[in-house]
Design brief:
The chain is of the alpha+beta class. It folds into three domains: 77 residues, no CATH class; 109 residues, Butyryl-CoA Dehydrogenase, subunit A, domain 2; 131 residues, no CATH class. Helices cover 46% and strands 14% of the residues. The chain is built from 13 helices and eight strands. The strands form two sheets. The protein has a four-stranded mixed β-sheet with strand order 1-4-5-8. It has a four-stranded antiparallel β-sheet with strand order 2-3-7-6, with no helix packed on it. A hairpin with an 8-residue loop joins strand 6 and strand 7. It binds flavin-adenine dinucleotide (FAD). Flavin-adenine dinucleotide binds next to strand 1, strand 3, helix 12 and helix 13.
């Protein structure tokens, strides 16, 4: 990559934006279609697969053009876990069918990974897929399935050969959810939301053409999809509270000079901005946020090379710590009012939500403890955890 390559790509992106401005009251869907078809949604992908064939570094350099224009839909080669996994592992026909709708957000997806006996240790999944002609028949139970009720398709990990050691006998599918063999039951969370579900699979069917990766090699697909998910979780969060706002821009390339404005504003409003411990913790949060922005830049560079990067575990762990810390700081700013809630105390309800919802990031997508294991083994080079079931056929492994 030369300076000239970067400058040329940035100039092209600017020219495209000038020719295709997104007016405030313009048709956002039509604009997104134009962005995707011009290859700017995922510029590091091949031209024939909705990219522009740019090197990952040049592609990331063009992100600044779209970020500055305050538009969305760009950078999906790093943040769209669904499309990134499909492009890496799907057969050409399936790619043709689903890649563009995934980039346009026209297909709703969910992850059928976790089971009652397989969460952190996903290699213990027991949901079985058996071949039946050109299809696979799936039986088992999944749990914690976010967005399961709305999903059109799922990433599904199954056991296809119990005679193989547990990491080897698994196969990964892109499965349609709208079929008689799929029953989705909502679960209520501590926040009051019901965003995830149990999913019961009874003779559900998926075509062989929808297999991602090879038969019995689902573990490789799963680990790369998990890395994309961690990266996305370390990068973006929906806004639900002032604490979320405080950590939301943790990935912006140039960290904001003003420390975590939403919590600062709350502290000023509540008359506690002179409290030395509140001031100290606002700055602590700001320092973590700035460090995480740099770390996420590192992780993005590595992910853009197409490798699964353990650095994303650092980003996800940091995001989890910041959200717990920001939620509790939001509560401390409010003082005893934080114990109240409901419509008459919206700021307290906001703080309670932030505190409870922080567990989303510290459990979902791999718990904090599992991120620490990954960091220990793959970044710090510490000895691996003992694997008592290594090399043993899955059918002989004792699982709960
Ligand atoms: C909000 C949310 C959304 C989710 N969405 C989805 C989804 O869409 N699809 C999906 O498939 N799953 C989803 N999950 C499930 C999530 O991935 C699992 O909850 C998570 O991987 C932990 O698995 P588990 O709950 O079975 O806990 P367990 O694996 O049973 O872990 C229990 C405790 O033991 C610790 N532990 C386990 N193994 C180790 C180890 N080797 N070293 C150190 N500590 C360990 C864990 O850190 C944890 O504290 C979601 C979870 C949440 C909270």
């Amino acid at each position: 990559m030369t300076e000239a390559d970067v400058s040329a790509a940035i100039a092209e992106a600017e020219a495209w934006l000038q020719e295709n401005p997104l007016e405030p009251d313009g048709d956002r869907d039509a604009w997104l279609r134009a962005l995707v078809d011009a290859g700017w949604a995922a510029p590091s992908w091949p031209v024939e697969e909705y990219g522009r064939g740019l090197s990952p570094k040049v592609a990331r350099a063009t992100d600044q053009v779209f970020r500055a224009a305050k538009v969305s839909g760009w950078g999906q080669d790093v943040t769209n876990l669904w499309a990134a996994t499909v492009i890496a592992w799907a057969k050409p026909e399936l790619k043709k069918q689903v890649l563009r709708p995934l980039l346009l957000g026209e297909i709703d997806m969910c992850l059928l990974y976790s089971e009652p006996g397989a969460g952190s240790d996903l290699a213990s999944v027991r949901t079985a897929a058996e071949r039946d002609g050109d299809e696979w028949v799936v039986n088992g139970q999944k749990v914690w399935t976010s967005g399961g009720r709305q999903a059109d398709y799922a990433f599904l990990i199954t056991r296809t050969d119990s005679a193989q050691p547990k990491h080897r006998g698994m196969t990964f599918f892109f499965m349609p959810m709208d079929q008689p063999g799929v029953e989705v039951r909502p679960l209520r969370q501590a926040t009051g939301d019901a965003r995830f579900n149990e999913v019961f699979l009874t003779d559900a069917r998926v075509s062989d053409a929808n297999m991602l990766g090879e038969y019995n090699s689902g573990w490789h697909v799963l680990t790369s999809a998990l890395a994309y998910e961690r990266s996305a979780m370390g990068v973006t969060r929906p806004r639900r509270s002032a604490a979320d706002d405080a950590v939301r821009d943790a990935t912006s390339e140039a960290s904001a000079p003003i420390p975590d404005l939403s919590l600062v504003e709350l502290a000023v409003k509540r008359g506690v901005s002179g409290d030395p411990t509140i001031r100290q913790d606002l700055m602590r949060l700001h320092a973590w946020r700035t460090l995480n922005a740099w770390n996420n830049q590192r992780a993005k560079q590595e992910l853009a090379k197409g490798t699964s990067s353990p650095v994303v575990s650092l980003g996800k762990l940091a995001m989890s710590r910041m959200l717990h810390f920001a939620g509790s700081l939001q509560g401390r700013i409010l003082g005893s009012e934080a114990m109240l809630g409901g419509e008459s105390h919206p700021e307290a309800a906001d703080a309670t939500y932030a505190m409870l919802n922080a567990f989303f990031t510290s459990i979902g997508g791999g718990t904090d403890q599992i991120q620490r294991n990954i960091i220990g083994e793959r970044i710090l080079g510490l000895p691996k955890e003992p694997e008592v079931d290594k090399g043993i056929p899955f059918s002989d492994v004792r699982v709960s």
